[in-house]
Amino acid sequence: QLAAPPRLYQICGRLVPWLAAAGIIALATGWVRGFGFAPADYQQGEGYRIMYLHVPAAIWSMGIYAAMAVAAFTGLVWQMKMATLAVAAMAPVGAVYTFIALVTGAAWGKPMWGTWWVWDARLTSELVLLFLYAGVIALWHAFDDRKMAGRAAGILVLVGVVNLPVIHYSVEWWNTLHQGSTRMQQSIDPAMRSPLRWAIAGYLLLFMTLALMRMRNLILLMEKRRPWVSELILKRGHR
């Protein structure tokens, strides 16, 4: 019953306000504490604070793609239309997060490496991830037949999954300029670690909010000729 478009549309609508409020609170907490109260780093000084923008975006750029892969597999194997729509709903948010990770990473790397960009394994594989997101979005819009569009986008998502371990382990497999993966180990000052956790949670909640909002729009587009959509429009028109 959850996979029924009217029911899923209703559930998404109920979740969005709560997720949005929680996301705003989490982000505000993380950023206020991170940018305003966390101590300066003994090596990087104040410049390290960009990690409160960069690290959550980098983490969820991969996390969102992994979620898309699960949805794509479900849609292709069990022919679930809502799973296919979920791929299309998540892709733009994932693309934005990946772009944020690349831009903030370049800004963080300039004072550390002396250059905005190097063809480092981590940076290059993250750039490939952005291209994969763009490809999924392009394929979704390239076909008038939604079933064909969903299948093409889903196949690309599954092919691109191989890039995720490359991104994650690139700093261990190759000699790179990029620092090791950020972990919540005890070596990080608790005053720095706690705001980062809040920011990571906030990015996740923001992603869920935006993805569900887009999911609702895609459901309406797909079901626009169904009676329940006409009834919904009439109800809103009378308010």
TrEMBL record:
Gene Ontology MF terms: heme binding; heme transmembrane transporter activity
GO cellular component: plasma membrane
Localisation per UniProt entry: Cell inner membrane; Membrane
Listed transmembrane segments: 15-37, 57-78, 85-107, 127-143, 155-175, 195-215
Main location: membrane
One GO-annotated biological process of the protein: cytochrome complex assembly
Membrane-protein topology: Multi-pass membrane protein
Location of the Cytochrome c assembly protein domain: 2-178
Keyword list, A-Z: Cell inner membrane, Cell membrane, Cytochrome c-type biogenesis, Membrane, Transmembrane, Transmembrane helix, Transport
PANTHER family in the record: CYTOCHROME B_B6 PROTEIN-RELATED, HEME EXPORTER PROTEIN C
Family to which this protein belongs: Belongs to the CcmC/CycZ/HelC family.
Function, in words: Required for the export of heme to the periplasm for the biogenesis of c-type cytochromes.
UniProt-recorded name of the protein: Heme exporter protein C
Gene label: ccmC
